[in-house]
User: What shape does this take?
Amino acid sequence: MLSVRNSWIRYGSKIVVRDVSLDIPAGKMVALIGPNGSGKTTLVRGISGTLPLEKGRVTYQDHDLRDLPETDRAKLISVVPQITQFPAGFTVFETVSLGRTPYLGWMGKLSVKDIDLIEAAIMETSIGALREKDVLALSGGEQQRVVLARALAQDTPVLILDEPTAHLDLTYQIGLLTIVRRICTEKQLSVLIVLHDLNLAARFADAVAIMDEGQILTHGAPEAVLTKEILSPVFHLPMSVIRPEEFDYPVILPQ
Amino acid sequence: MRVFASLRRTAVNRSAGLLASLVAVLLLIMMIVSMITGSVRLNLADVLQMLGMKLTGNSLSQELLIIEKILFSLRAPRTLLMVLTGAALACSGASYQGLFRNPLADPYLIGVSSGASLGAVIAMSISWPYTRLGTLMTPLMAFFFAILTVIAVFHLGKIGGVLNMTGLILAGVAVNAIASALTSGWLLISNSELRYSLSWMLGGITRSGWEPLTVMVPVLLVGMAGQWALAYPLNVMQFGDEQAAQLGVSVQKMRRRIIFFSTLTTATAIAFSGIIGFVGLIVPHMIRLLVGSDYRRLIPLSILGGGLFLLTADVIARTVIAPQELPVGILTALTGAPFFLWLLHQVKRKGEH
Assistant: This one.
């Protein structure tokens, strides 16, 4: 289980995350939602160690992640960042193989076991046909799968995704989250996923944490948390939550 | 599928290996050409005869003794100096392009050359006693000031305790400007001959003999090996600092090491050979076009390619207006700059499709 305890995170001169506590058990997918600027990405950075914690603790089992060097931390936590610019000259295979970095020697030579894990990650994300293509030549949806495969090749018990579905079309959004959902359950990963789309959170997550102004307002099962009483003030919009018969999850719409 | 993937990787490695052997052979040929060309043109047959006599232990005739002297005391060290300098500049160029994630970065980006110029010009304005230390004063001062400048840029470039690439480049621009101004000022107020200083700054004055090589060889070997050893983290860092850290790379530590080794390499090379432009920019670029951007291949191939490029330029510089010599830096700029423009044009055209 990944535990965030009373964590405060500063970004520049401003405290962006205040006193956040959150638990992500193995095999569970927790969605982090909230308006822009509420501190979601900063929290992800704090947990993954790219920003220091001002106060508080992040632990996995009994490891205090703050004390670990990058290499050891990268064996516990993998991150799928928001789609960014890719560097030139990397094939899909080469990009996914970078997930093995924390396990490799100084020249980065891959062992048979490394190649097996890379190929397994490529299979799980259905990008086998793209293996030798240049990542820059792929569509946004394909690139996001490559980055997910890289995180899976990292073979960590904790997986964090920061708005992985931004800029993707509907098919790719559902496709990507279906893969994440399946792997989360199969491999018993602790998954934290930042989402903008409340309906994706309602459909795929085991629990939803709502963040506003650097704090977690409430945290619980999607049905309990995604209500119009809670959501309307957070997004400054009157919201409706409906339960269509053919869906087994709530549908949220702004009025 | 796995078999296919590993076959494909073998193919890439093989073509890199092929290119490496090709460049190595060309380098050897060019080294022979460099040994026999110059203000006195040597005949290959005479050279072989001389070598044959030496190997069989026979004493040399007067004529062959001169050939021996030219070959071993002048041409051989000059050839090695050029190969090493080209290798050093191209290697550091490859590292800097990776470090700054910018194909336009060159080994002089954060102040090595402006610092070295300042040091060299100060040293040249003082008449040193004609001793071993006296003749080494210019390279030593150039090296010392180059390192000093980079340390200054490195510290000024830190913003909020974090070494940020933009901060580093901006600090580089500022410190370069200060060092250049000081160099110009020093040149104007000192009574030394400007021609020597100018020539050094154009990559002209090459110290002859074996003396510089005894210093250069060990330092450059360490510097270039250090850069090659950092090639894999450099690959990962192409995805940006944040992703590299999340993939387990200690970004700050690696960055410091890369800057250390490439500064050591560049400063040593230019201290003895003067400031030679475009090698560090062009050579890694060409290699990248041929074998892709895996730094584990790019760095060793840039070392070989840089040696070949500069040695070829030097041979041309020595012959084109013989018996006078053109500073090799002028030649690398004259050939390098148009090539660079052509390259930019190609890249732009590709982008328009």
